[in-house]
Each structure stands twice: as C-alpha cells, then as structure tokens.
Fold these 2 entries.
Entry 1:
Amino acid sequence: MTPGISRRRLLGGTAAAIAGLAVADLLPTLAERAVAGAPAILKPLPPEWFIDYGSNAEMRWDSVDPRVYATPQARLFVRDHTSTPTIDPSTYRLRILGDGLVRSEGVELTLGQLRALPQVTLTSVHECTGNGRSFFATQQGKAASGTQWKLGAVGTVVWHGVRLRDVLDAVGVRRDAVSVMATGLDPSYVSGGVDYGPVRRPFPISKAYDDALLAWSMNGGDLLPDHGFPLRLVLPGWVGIGSIKWLGSLEVSTSEQTSPWSTTWYNLDGRPLAANPVRSAFELPWGAQLPRRTVVLTGRSWSGAGPIAKVEISTDGGATWSRAELDRPRSDSAGTGHGWTRWAYRWTAPRPGSHELLARATDALGRTQPDVAAWNPNGYFFDAVVRHPVTVG
Ligand SMILES: Nc1nc2c(c(=O)[nH]1)N[C@H]1C(S)=C(S)[C@@H](COP(=O)(O)O)O[C@H]1N2
Ligand SMILES: [Mo]
C-alpha cells in the first residue's frame, strides 16, 4: 500500500474534518505524492458517490438526496488537468497585472485584503463543458474524445467571496480594458509531449463586471484543496473551465487574450464557449428497478443562461410529454440564484418490463433540449434529452 493510499484511508469518512483549514497540513505535498504515485484528487471518492476516472471524478446521480439542494463539497465532481496542488494560505497572494490597470506595476493581494471587501453569497450551477459526453457514443453512435462523463460532472454550489468588480475597482482598471486572463497555480499541463503551461483562460471584462466572483468558500466551508483552495474564480453559468481553481493571477488587458483553453479546447466553430446549455437528470440509477405501483420520479434541470421555466417528462420514448412539478425558485444575497431546479413527476407504469424515461427542460430564455446534440469531436455541450432506461415490476 502506497503512503498516498494510506493517507486517503486516514481521511476516509472524516468529511467534517476536511472542511477545516487544518486539513491542508495533513495532505501530502505534490513531491511526496509524485514519489508515491499517489492520486491526483485528494478527497475520498467512495464508489457509491463517485465514478473515478483518475484526475477526474463524477457524481453519481443515484446518490443525490432529493431533499438536499446544494451539492456538498464531499460529493461534488472534480476535474483536474494535472493534480490538486496544496497551497499555503498564509503565503498565498493573488497577483493582478496587465496593461489594463491604471497602475502599471500591478498588485499582490492577500486573502485578508480580499476578505476586507464587501462579501457576497451566490448560488450557481457548476458544470464541466464535457458533461454528458458519453452519450455521443451510447445514444448517438459516435464517440467523442475525452473523459466519458455521464451526467454527473455538475453540481449546484453556494459560493461565498467577493465580487471581481469590487476587486478590480479597488485596484483601478482602465476604461479601455477588454479582457482578463485567469491563471491557476497547478502544475503545467503536458499532453502528447507538448507543455501548454499552467491552466489559464481569458474571459471578457464584461463578465468580470457582471457576476464574476473570487470565492474562498463553498456551501459555508473553506474550499477543499480539490476545488481550488484557497481561492478560485467563479464565472456563474459559464463552462467550468472558466472558473479557474487555485487562482494565481489575473491579467487585465486592453487587447484580446487567448490561451489553448480558449482556442484549441473549449471552443466551438471558432468561438470560445461561454454559457452552458440546458440539461436534465433523473436521481435514479441507470437501469433502475422500479416497483409496479405509482412512483414519484425526481430529478433536476439547469441552464447556464437563466432559470428553468418548464420541465416535461416523456415515458413513451418522446411521443407524448407531461409537465413535471417544479420546486420554488431561489435567490440569494447576490441576486437571483443561478442554481438548478428540482422537479418531481408521479408515474404509474402501464405495464411491467423495460421503459425509457425522458426529461426535457426549457429555460426562461426559451432555450430547450434537442433530440440530438450537435456533433463535435471534443464532445462538448451534450444537451440532448437523455433516454434513461428503467425496469418495472
Ligand atoms: N487551475 C485549474 N482550474 C481549473 C481546472 C484545472 O485543471 N486547473 N479545471 C477546470 C475545469 S475543466 C472544470 S470543469 C472545473 C472543475 O472544477 P471542480 O474540480 O472544482 O469541480 O475547474 C476548472 N478550473
Ligand atoms: Mo471542464
């Protein structure tokens, strides 16, 4: 047994302890883990909650408790390009630089300086661009490259931190600034023999001044190392790659910026991906066994562009649709929530045997889920209605 594994065992089941700052001290350093061949992800990944892909892990929808709205950190999916770094919060600094600043020398901010700004809480869906990718193969007959996520590369998180616009106003940004490059402190990403440098992605200054956050907390606890401790960027509603973890620097520029994460990856038809599409999932095992009586089917739907307006269910392969009952809308201190919507639907199967359950959501902007998702080789944005098999009787 490697030291890395025993360390994970030690932490197993101590979810409460993991929420605390002191845990950073218990975790092995990157160098120790490299020697041990230890896992990229530090938190426990119990198989009843997660499907483990190595440096990525997805939440099992059948483990989601219908009564719990936000996704606990211990259960949230993880997507690491390399591995989770361990960062000392006492020496941590966020660097803000670039020709878009009033003071050309830039600034370095401590966590304490950031915490002194007005604090906000914002609930938003947190989702990987490739969520649902495996359905390109299993439902549409053509496999896309990348992690074969089912629908669990998503959660809803209650973030707490400061608005990026308040930070930028405090630092001083020029009126002609157009873009911000966020760079992580994790190891450089190397693939196919090419070193692409640290994970980084630019976003428009308009998003910085709209609803972007710098968050140090999820669901009331400190960020876990895997989720960006001690500070991450949050771009609500946008593709997960935009929300850079272990945020090291923000470069504010008066010209457009690019990185491989906006041009080579997370780009469709020449445009960097921004708001996530509409998706839905049942809180059921794949191939669930259902009793032969009326059951309440529950699930959740979400959109990166706005609240969910309607969810329809089909239990006859898409021939007919009926409305699901939606949970009440939510809001928080930073305004209307960007979280998902829970729903429920009472169903009595007409006969025993195999059935397919379909859920299709529409958001407040009228965006909905197609029957077939648009093909792309990297398998982004699988937003088609997923056909969920169950057996009755
Ligand atoms: N620094 C850094 N930030 C990152 C990543 C990463 O590998 N390194 N992965 C991105 C991707 S692709 C996603 S989907 C989300 C995943 O966030 P989570 O692991 O906290 O769920 O983080 C994003 N931010
Ligand atoms: Mo992602």
Note: Residues 79, 128-130, 240-241 surround molybdenum atom (ligand 2) (CB under 6 Å).
Entry 2:
Amino acid sequence: MDHSHDVVIVGGGGAGLRAAIAVAETDPRLSVGVISKVYPMRSHTVSAEGGAAAVIRPDDSLDDHAYDTVSGGDWLCDQDAVEAFVAEAPQELFRLEHWGCPWSREPDGRIAVRPFGGMKKMRTWFAADKTGFHLLHTLFQTTLKYEQVVRYDEWFVTRLIVGDGRVHGVVAIELRSGRIAAIGAKAVILCAGGCGRVYPFTTNANIKTGDAMALALRAGAPLKDMEFVQYHPTGLPFTGILITEAARAEGGRLINKDGYRYLQDYDLGVPEPWPVLRSMELGPRDRLSQAFVHEVEKGRTTDTPYGPVVHLDLRHLGRTTINARLPFVRELCREYERIDPVEDLIPVRPVVHYMMGGVHTDIDGATSLEGLYAAGEVACVSINGANRLGSNSLPELLVFGRRAGQAAAAYASGAGGPGPAVRAQADDERHRLEHDLLFKTDGHEHVSALRQEMQDLMEDSAGIYRTGDSLAKAAGTLRELRERFRDTALGDHSRTFNTQLTAALELSFMLDVAEAIVACALLREESRGAHQRTDFPARDDQRFLAHSLIYRDPGGSYRVEYLPVTITRWPPGERVYGR
Ligand SMILES: Cc1cc2nc3c(=O)[nH]c(=O)nc-3n(C[C@H](O)[C@H](O)[C@H](O)COP(=O)(O)OP(=O)(O)OC[C@H]3O[C@@H](n4cnc5c(N)ncnc54)[C@H](O)[C@@H]3O)c2cc1C
C-alpha cells in the first residue's frame, strides 16, 4: 500500500470538506485523506451563487420547508430523509456562521433571506451572490484546524478497491508526477459531485464528469433515479454560465422575442397572483424550462449561433440594486457576453444544471457496499426526488456530508485493515491505465469527437422532453460509442499533468453515466418532475411512485430495479406551490 488512512474522501468540494470535519470531530484518532482532482477551492461548490435554504423566520416552519421540497420533487423524495434534512439545515448554517461564513444581513442585523423558486416562504440565506465561494472558503479554512486531515490536491481517482464484499481504498494518479498509487482506507466517502458535462450546454464546471457515479457502478453499488436531470432555465447561450435564480428573485423578468412575459401562458403549478413567490419567474425550474421549449415551437424565441434564446430583463431593478444584490451577475454578463444588465437584456436558454440522481445511499450516506459512503451531488439520498428546489443543494451537502462523515468514522473505528486483494487490484489498475491508455499508440478515434457526439446525443434524446423511440436509439448509439472508445489513442504519452489522459478517463466515466441515464429514462414510462416523456405525459403513481436502481454487471450490461418511495406524512398530491 502506497498510502493509507482510516477514511478516504474522494472530493474536496462542500460535501467532501464537511465530511472531513465530521470524521475529525467524531473520532480525533482517525486519519482522513481528502483526494481532489483540482485544488479544493476550485471545486464546483465555489460557483454557487444564489443561496442555501433553511428555516429561520418566525412565519416559516420545518413542515413548510419539507412540504415545498416534497411537492417540488413531485413526490419522489424519501420523506424521512426530507424531515431530517429540514430539521438539521438551520443548525448547519448557524454552525457555518460560527466558523466564519459572512451571511448577508438585514439592516437590523438579522440574517437576510431571499425568495427562491418553488419555496413558498423566504428561507434562502445568501452571501451576496457568492454564497458557494464563502461557504467553501469557510469549510476549507476549518479543515486546516485538523492535523489528521491530509490533502491529496490534484490527485485523480480512477478505481475503487473492493474485496470480500467491502471497500478497501482507491487507486489514484498524482497528476503532477503521473505516479499511480494505491491509497488504502477502511471507509471511503464519495463526494465527487455531479455529471452535467454529459450534456453539451451546462452550468457545470469542466470537472463535473460523474467520475464517482461510474466508480460506484463499476464496484457493484447501484445508482438511483438517474433519469432525473435538472435544466436551469437561465444559462448564457454559448458558455452555459449560470445566471442565478437570485436574479429572478430580485425581480428579473423573462420575455420572449416580442417582449412578452410568456410564462403567463403556462401552468407552472403556482396559483395567481403568486403571493409569496412574488412572480411567475420563480416557478419551478422544470416547468420554466419546459415553457421555453414551447416558446421555441411557437416561433417566439430569438435565434442565435448557439440556438434559440429568450431574454432576462433586469433593467427595471436599476444600477443600485444590481450592484448591491447581483454584482456577480453583472460581472459575468460584462466579461462573457460584453453586455451590461443595467442597460441590456440578457440572452438565456435552459442548460443542464444538476443531477437529482446519484449513488444510492441511506439517510446516513451508506451505500449498499460495506464501507462505501456518498454525500453531496454525487449521492441520491433522496431529498430532491424528481426535481430539486433551488438552494436545497448547499444545505444538503452540509447535512448529509456531516452524516456520512459521522457514519464512516463509526464504521472505520471498528473495521479491520485492508485485505490481500488490494495489492493485486492496484497492480491491475496500473497496468490498465498504462497499457490501455497512456502508452497505447494504435487507435483512430479522438476523445473530443466522441465526447461531442455523446453530448449532442444526450441533449437530443434525453433532454427536457424524451420519447421511448429516441431513448432506445440513444441506448444503441451509446453502446457503439463505448466500442469506439476502445479505439482511442492519446497523442501525449508523458506523465506530467497529462490532460489527455484525464479527459479520456472522464469520457469513459461519462459514457457509463450516460448509459445509466438513458436506461432508466427508457424504462420510466411516465412524466414526473424533470423526466418528461411525450409518449407518457401523465404521472403514474400506480407503477412509478418508486426509485429506479440501476446496477452494472461485470460484463457491462445494465439491470434496473425499483424501490418504493418512503412516504411519512405527505401522501402524493397535485403539484401546486404557494398554498
Ligand atoms: C453554477 C452553479 C450554481 C449553483 N448555485 C447553487 C445555489 O445557489 N444553491 C444551491 O443550493 N446549489 C447551487 N448549485 C448546486 C451546488 O452548488 C452543487 O450541487 C454542490 O456544490 C455540489 O457540491 P459537492 O461537494 O457535492 O461537489 P463539488 O463541489 O462539485 O466537488 C466535487 C469534488 O470532487 C472532486 N473529484 C471529482 N472527480 C474526482 C476524481 N476522479 N478524483 C479525485 N477527485 C475528484 C473534485 O475535484 C471536487 O473537489 C449550483 C451549481 C452550479 C453549477
């Protein structure tokens, strides 16, 4: 074994760092390795803008937050998990305050909250529009207090080591040297984030390639609810950069090419006059993204080289409000679109934003593989069901990062050391990486071309609307892409920061994730939340009030099973906000 720790965490974003602190606090004798393919502060959490939801105002209640989450998720959320989540979210945000997070304040000193899509009460805490930056910084600084937390910055995990029915660590490449090392552990927590890069237009950073979803699948742990992919209605057309929902929370309006607030023509599940949500623009993300598709069909959008767009209008808010509440939005528009939202309309289109599905875990982050845990966007607990409400993800990674850290610490305290399988698996992985990828010279396919084909296929067949035919075709094409992937050869055979190697590994992870999304979407013959089948337009609680669990057999074929949804207090009802 090249390195070893009691607990190894894959991912240095919000979930990973929160889990690391929890392990250190639970049992200070445990050693913790935090492995991240980028420097932790570059993790995607840093780019979260809008805020984090937790009940704080006297007119709000935990039940209200739970109900909004469950109905927003179209009743696919496990309600025991949601109840734990809403109860612990305020404690986590206060804890962050004590660790130094500068939450924005009301003039009288109270924590400020803003409205957010689908939340019927104001409960979204924020730090201007740089919430993720401050949250991640706070967690990062706090981890520095613990000597037992050892960081592996810019190390890329390629495989989980599994033997005797449990996990024993990971194999990772140190990107600076190209050294391939085994890092042993009694427990491993996957905190490696989402997989938006499976699609061509996404708010997600380049590094969000679903690596740990594929690692879990390959190790025999199932993924849950992979067909539920969230589109955010307001991304910049070319880059996919997010214009935060906070812009609409502050009063921004969506207009079509005729200058018309087109959302008034659609059923957003929000009764007029949107008393608490303030405006139709704060309807749920899935419904807003679907309305965009209908505007395209009606010819009421504006064509650009990057596809059709509508516009977000902030001009009436004025310079002072935009500077005070949305400074980052203004900066992004100026830098990336050469426009100023104080004077100009912002072109926007729906872009992939968040993965509701992920590694199947219980309420403490435990997967079905002994010793393996998961938390954050990579995991599916599930509190997000068929559609996540904006600002629930940051508190989710705090609540379940902590829970997974505590559970992994308890497990590691009693677990034995790594078994004999470890060395052999590490050698096998080293051989695979060097022989099949790094030093391979015969191959005709290019990673970038295959990636583009996969992304376009996913947008066309597993996007905002899907049909059985297009999904079945996509499943076949993905199998072909997997075959063609075997025929790739890299142009760069050096070991130091070989980005071609990591891009190839990421593509192979993404192909697994794409196959899982398509397989689950094909079998779910209903429409619910972010999964809209034009051939099955209604929700079907008889057959599908259930989570899909997808397994990958060693031969590479997929199997889907269903698991009942946990209902505690809110029986399935019509999806209406603002009651
Ligand atoms: C632009 C944007 C804005 C958002 N705004 C909000 C918001 O306002 N409110 C809200 O609640 N949510 C928001 N979200 C969602 C939320 O930010 C994310 O879901 C959440 O931050 C994910 O955190 P994480 O810790 O799970 O993963 P990340 O922060 O994505 O961290 C993943 C970590 O895993 C590591 N990793 C991945 N693969 C490997 C590998 N193979 N080897 C080693 N390390 C690996 C990475 O280096 C990284 O450290 C936003 C998302 C985006 C994209």
Note: The chain has a mean pLDDT of 94.
